[in-house]
Amino acid sequence: MCIRDSSYGVRYQNYTVTYEKNGQESIANLSFNQYWADRVAQSQQGNQGDSVLPFFQYRYGGKANNAPGFYQPQNKNLSLIHI
Question: Is 39 exposed, middle or buried (0-12, 13-18, 19+ CB in 10 A)?
Answer without folding.
Answer: middle
